[in-house]
Amino acid sequence: MRTIGLMSGTSLDGVDAAWVETDGTRIARFGPSLTLPYDPALRRDLRKLLDLAGNIPGDDPFLLDCEQRLTERHAEAVEELGLEADLIGFHGQTILHRPRAGQPGAGRTWQIGDAAALARRARIPVAHDFRSADVAAGGQGAPLVPVFHAALAATLPKPLAILNLGGVGNVTWLGEDGALVAFDTGPANGPLDDWARRSTGEDYDRDGRLALAGLPDGAVLGQLLAHPYLAAPPPKSLDRLDFDRALRDAGAGELPPADGAATLATFCACAVAAAARHFPAPPLQWLVAGGGRRNPALMRALAGALPEPVHPVEVVGWDGDALEAQAFGVLAARVWRGLPLTFPGTTGAPGPTVGGQLTGVSGPLVPA
Ligand SMILES: Nc1ncnc2c1ncn2[C@@H]1O[C@H](COP(=O)(O)OP(=O)(O)OP(=O)(O)O)[C@@H](O)[C@H]1O
Ligand SMILES: CC(=O)N[C@H]1[C@@H]2OC[C@@H](O2)[C@@H](O)[C@@H]1O[C@H](C)C(=O)O
User: Fold this and answer.
1) For 146-316, CATH number?
2) pLDDT value at position 138?
3) 33 pairs with which residues across the strands?
4) In which element (H, E) is residue 310 found?
5) Could you say which residues bind ATP here (predicted)?
6) Fewer CB atoms near the end CB (10 Å): N or C, the chain?
7) C-beta separation of 148 from 327 below 8 A
8) How far apart are the first and last CA of the chain?
C-alpha cells in the first residue's frame, strides 16, 4: 500500500509527514517527508490543553477548536506532500496519557484529531486511534513504533538499541532471537524546551548552547535519579508532564539558566542509562532518532552515560526526523490488514494486540 504517516509528537513543534510503501510487515520504499511547524498560537493553545486535559470533557469548545486547527494543519501537510496514497496513518496529538491504575482519570490515553474530517478533505481513508485498544487490553498504549523499528532493523547486527529523543524518550531493544523490549526511558526534550522557553524565550535550546555553557547540579540530579519510574521494570510509559512535579520538588527551577539546562540534559541521558539496566543484554550500539539527536549537549551526555557507541540513525541510512511519521504509515497498513500493533514486550499487552480504527472518505470502515 502507498501510505502517508502523520505524527505530531509531544514536543508540540508541528506535524511530521512521510510517504511509505509497505504491507505493514516490510518496507518496500520510503518516499519524501516533511515537517509543517505549528504556528505559535496553536503551539501555545496545545500546551494549555495538556494542562487542562485531565479535567475537561471531549466536547469542550476550546478543545474542539484546537482539534479543528490541528486537523487543518495535518490536511495541509498531506497536501504539501502532494503524493498519491491509499491510506493515511493519523496519530493525532496526545493531550493526556494515563494508562495506569492509581492516577486520576486513569485507564485512558487521549489523542485529539478529527479523522473523518481529514479523510473527507484528503479523499483518502484514514487509520487513527492507534493506542486505545491496547490500553483497554491492559497495555501501556505506548510505545507503538517498536514493531516498525524491528522491521527496519531486520538485517542489522543485534542486540541493538534504537532510542527516540522527542518530548519524551523511548527505546526499542532488539535481540538476536527476535526478542523485543521497548518502553519510555524518561523525559527528553520536553522539560528542556520548557526550561529554554522560560530562560531565553526560545522554543528550545538550539544546538544545546545553553546546556553546554552550564554544569549539571549533583544534588538536583541525584534526587531526580531516585524517581521510582527509572527503577520500575517495563512495561512503562509516560505522559509529557509526568516528571513536572519531581522537577519542581528537586528544586530544578531554582538553578541558574545554563546549569538548569545542563542538569536536564544530563538527567535525560542518565535516565537512558538507567533504562539499559532493564535490557536482557547490552546492545552493540545505540541509534538515536528524534529532535534530541540534534542537541550536542544531549548527545555528549549520552556518550558519557552509556558504555556502548552512540550514533544518530543516519549512520545506517535512516532519516531521524521522519522515522516516527514513517512508523505511522506502516502502522496504518497494519491496521488495514488487521495485524497486531502491540506485544507483551512493547506495551505489556497480554498478547499480540490489534488496534486502531479506520475511517473512509464517507464513513467508518472495518479492517480487512
Ligand atoms: N538544533 C537543535 N538543537 C537542540 N534541540 C533540538 C534541535 N532540533 C530539534 N531539537 C529538539 O527536538 C525537539 C523536537 O523533537 P521531535 O520532533 O523528535 O519530538 P516529537 O516527535 O514532538 O516528540 P515525541 O517523540 O516525544 O512524540 C524540539 O522540541 C527540540 O527540543
Ligand atoms: C502517549 C504518547 O503519545 N506517547 C509518545 C510520547 O513520545 C515519545 C514516547 O512518548 C512514546 O511512547 C510515544 O510516541 C511514540 C511515537 C510511540 O508510541 O512509539
Assistant:
1) 3.30.420.40
2) 95
3) 18
4) strand 310-312
5) 9-16
6) C
7) yes
8) 13
Query: How far, in Å, are 9, 94, 121, 296 from residue 126 at the CA level?
Result: 18, 17, 11, 37
Contact at 8 Å (CB) between 163 and 39?
A: no
Quickly tell me which residue has 495538556 as its cell.
50
Q: Does the Cβ of 135 fall within 6 Å of ligand 2?
A: no
DSSP state of 353: B
Counting atoms of ligand 1 from 1, which one is nearest the CA of 12?
A: 22
Number of Cβ within a 10 Å radius of residue 15? 25
Distance CA 267, CA 193 (A): 14
Which CATH architecture fits 2-142+321-365?
2-Layer Sandwich (3.30)
Distances (CA, A) of 175 to 106, 154, 178, 285, 313: 32, 11, 5, 12, 18
CA distances to 125, 335, 354 from 358, rounded to whole Å, are: 7, 8, 12
In the numeric block, the cell 504509515 is attached to 329
Please list every protein residue whose CB sits less than 6 Å from any atom of ligand 1.
9-11, 13, 164, 166-168, 189, 192-193, 204-208, 290-292, 294-295, 324
Look at residues 363, 361, 367, 362 and name the one whose alpha carbon lies nearest to residue 332: 367
Is the beta carbon of 184 within 6 A of some atom in ligand 2? yes
- Ligand 1 atom with least separation from CA of 240: 26
How far from 103 is each of 100, 170, 232, 242, CA to CA, in Å? 7, 21, 16, 11
| Centroid of ligand 2 to alpha carbon of 256 (angstroms) | 30
Tell me the pLDDT tens digit for each residue of 279-299. 999 999 999 999 999 999 999
pLDDT value at 230 more than 70: yes
CB of 14 within 6 A of ligand 2: the answer is no
Residue 307 CB burial class (10 angstroms; 0-12, 13-18, ≥19): exposed
Indicate the annotated binding residues for ATP: 9-16
76-95 per-position pLDDT tens digit: 999 999 999 999 999 999 99
What b/e readout covers 184-219, taking b as 16+ CB neighbours within 10 angstroms?
A: bbbbbbbbbbbbbeebeeeebbeebbbbbebebbee
In the chain, list all ranges with CATH 3.30.420.40.
Answer: 2-142+321-365, 146-316
Q: List binding-site positions.
A: 9-16
